[in-house]
Automatic annotation (TrEMBL), chains A, B:
InterPro entries: Tscrpt_reg_Rrf2 (IPR000944), WH-like_DNA-bd_sf (IPR036388), WH_DNA-bd_sf (IPR036390). This is Transcriptional regulator. The lineage of its organism: Bacteria, Pseudomonadati, Pseudomonadota, Gammaproteobacteria, Alteromonadales. It comes from the Bacteria. Transmembrane segments: none annotated. It holds the Pfam family Rrf2.
Amino acid sequence: MRKDSRLSRVLHILVHMQAIDRPVTSEQMAEMISTNPVVVRRTMALLRTANYVTSTKGHHGGWKLAKPLANITLLDIHHALGDGSIFTIGLSDEHTQCVIEQAVNEALNDVMNEAEALMLKRFGQITLDKLGADKISSYLKER
Amino acid sequence: MRKDSRLSRVLHILVHMQAIDRPVTSEQMAEMISTNPVVVRRTMALLRTANYVTSTKGHHGGWKLAKPLANITLLDIHHALGDGSIFTIGLSDEHTQCVIEQAVNEALNDVMNEAEALMLKRFGQITLDKLGADKISSYLKER
DNA sequence: TTTAAAGTAACTTTTATTGTTACATCAAAA
DNA sequence: TTTTGATGTAACAATAAAAGTTACTTTAAA
């Protein structure tokens, strides 16, 4: 299974956007994360649907933040990306009438749910403006 | 990304084995989880390497538990399967010199590590004999 | 009218698990 | 001693989801 790096990549882009007061193009974002503008648009479109960014076509178009990073959490972005399953561990479901399969899956599910709940709780506690705020502010001052 | 269902499947098999006092063949195990004997051997070979099961070739051959299920935890089996990454979330690593990428990945990594630690801790607290012991014992009595 | 941008459909590539085929090896049974 | 039933294993195909790519449409500013 290939890893889903959309969350990491899009956070990277959003933090960059904060420091730029013009619309940022998909082309520029693609350079930030070493990929193709179409890949960027695909992911950014999900954030636009959830109202974290806006986009405009045509000359001097591009993407803008729709609200301050302080008002967006990691959990918000995770949700906007579709709330996909976060675990590589899958449960077999070929014999749902088998009590052993049920018991095994119930145990695994309980543990995974607890771990996921913790993870989402932490994501909900981190706003995007906090992502390396210390390092980044000193870095920006150097330029 | 396809899910890794080896843990769920092999636990299912191990609990079944407990109730059978003869060697169990790969063919029989394959039926339990609706797959191919080769797939079973591949996964079971990892458990044999870690000394949780033994196998014998030839007539009346097959697989046997090497120790009581009460002496094996979910974590033991998870380790035996190779301790693979449990998250579908990946971190981008194209710009390791970029402070923003660093900050984003550090935040995500911290949260994922905490969630993984909780999950492995829980896995370590569950021995295989506890997997649905109540349901399974009443089920076995009915036959 | 040209140009610079997003929007989007369709297809290919990648990557790891899973599935399959084929055959070697081994040990018990006939 | 030969047959049979089992594991061991190499090599390859199928699957699935993200990521990458190509090509084209639409839009709006220059």
